Amino acid sequence: MPVKIYNTLTRKKELLKPIEPGHIKLYVCGITSYDYCHIGHARSALAFDMIVRYLRYRGNKVTYIRNFTDIDDKIIARAEEQGTTTEELANRFIDEFYVDMDRLGVDRPTMEPKATEHIQEMIDLVSELIDKGMAYPAGGDVYYKVHSFDGYGKLSGRNLDDMQAGARVSVNENKTDPMDFVMWKASKPGEPSWDSPWGPGRPGWHIECSAMSRKYLGSTFDIHGGGQDLIFPHHENELAQSEGANNKPFVNMWIHHGFVTIRDEKMSKSLGNFLTIRDILAHYHPEVLRFFIFSTQYRNPLDFSEAAMQDAMTGLDRLYECIAACDALGTAHSDSAEIVATPKDIKKIESLEERFQKAMDNDFNTAQAQASLFETVKVINKIIQQLPDVPATSDYNLLKSGSADIVKLAAIMGIVQENAAEYLAHKKAAMLAETDISEAEILALIAERNQARTDKNWTRSDEIRDELLDRGIELKDGPEGTGWSVKRS
């Protein structure tokens, strides 16, 4: 089944048809490097990391370009506040970005160009637009003439006349029309600047991506991505510049991921609900954040809350517990042992990859893809609970194969990638450290409870269970004995 993607430009799902068969060219707008990354940056990085992994899993070559904006007004202002240079500040936060991405297990793109390393490409593109009468220099600035491009507004769905009617009177005397936007800015005293035909200055934000994407992916490429907040004006302006200069379609498909909110409010420093990636990873394993982000399809809004993260942690643990149980299966198995798995069970496990692909081929629906993993986990757990001491060869092979498929497919979302037993042991130890009881005490009380049950002293048995529960320890009786876990708060 071919991959279908919701195209922001056409407002419908379309089949992905690469310009070069088997080779997908993707450009994503990266960070402006002046501060630590927040959860919104995490969603963007993880969404496109997942998309690239899946497209490669489906047999495609993917050239993935994600830029760094390392010069703009925010960087200049922050550098001045900190008494440093824009170059030092931008490079410092690019380094910090990589620290966060590496902790999240995000694969590096094919190339990550910096704006300041492509000034000449931007000057060339601006010059082309001036020569075509689609841009004009004024007072050291250069502006794009929005009315020169008939398709302006087609990406965002806005009508230019309506935008014109609602536009405020421009306070910039250099503009000939309030809708026009800047492509090149004359530098102010003390600001970083580069020589240009229009005097010393620096690029505007929108021209960066038009120039860098053209250099590395060509005048027309397959997919352009970013957050929904970039659709207008950033991506709309990119499209106008690029198609105006190149006289051909800029991008065939546009992918935009949804917003992240904190308890149903837009994330904002002024509201005190601004969470950096580091804030979150101080309390949660990186895979919990990944699981949480992919529990919702990428285009939908994503609301961050402690309850949602706890649910994500529980879900991730269920996957790891299933893998650990399969890993713990003994090597002894027999062709003559009774088969536990039913034909329905076998079909459910063996069809996992097909169901997973069906979900992901439908606009990368990771929520449904996760559901397919859990459907398989449920069947595997049921079979394991019914296994005799020496399972049938077919049961053993089925469970091992199903476990391997879960790990392989979960890797597309970057989850269940650690040794399952070690992950669960570390998790248990960390949670136990927050209680007032040691593992030795727990085991001693379980042994005492087992003896009480043997003696049919049900009162003492219940007392021990209640005592452990009061101290945050839950018991689970099973055919292989009594297990325990730390109760989640």
Automatic annotation (TrEMBL):
It comes from Desulfocapsa sulfexigens (strain DSM 10523 / SB164P1). It catalyses: tRNA(Cys) + L-cysteine + ATP = L-cysteinyl-tRNA(Cys) + AMP + diphosphate. Its EC number is 6.1.1.16. It comes from the Bacteria. Its cofactor is Zn(2+). Keywords: Aminoacyl-tRNA synthetase, ATP-binding, Cytoplasm, Ligase, Metal-binding, Nucleotide-binding, Protein biosynthesis, Zinc. ATP binds at K269. Belongs to the class-I aminoacyl-tRNA synthetase family. One of its GO terms (biological process) is cysteinyl-tRNA aminoacylation. Gene3D superfamilies: Cysteine-tRNA ligase, C-terminal anti-codon recognition domain (1.20.120.1910), HUPs (3.40.50.620). This is Cysteine--tRNA ligase. A motif ('KMSKS' region) lies at residues 266-270. It is an enzyme of class 6 (ligase). A motif ('HIGH' region) lies at residues 31-41.
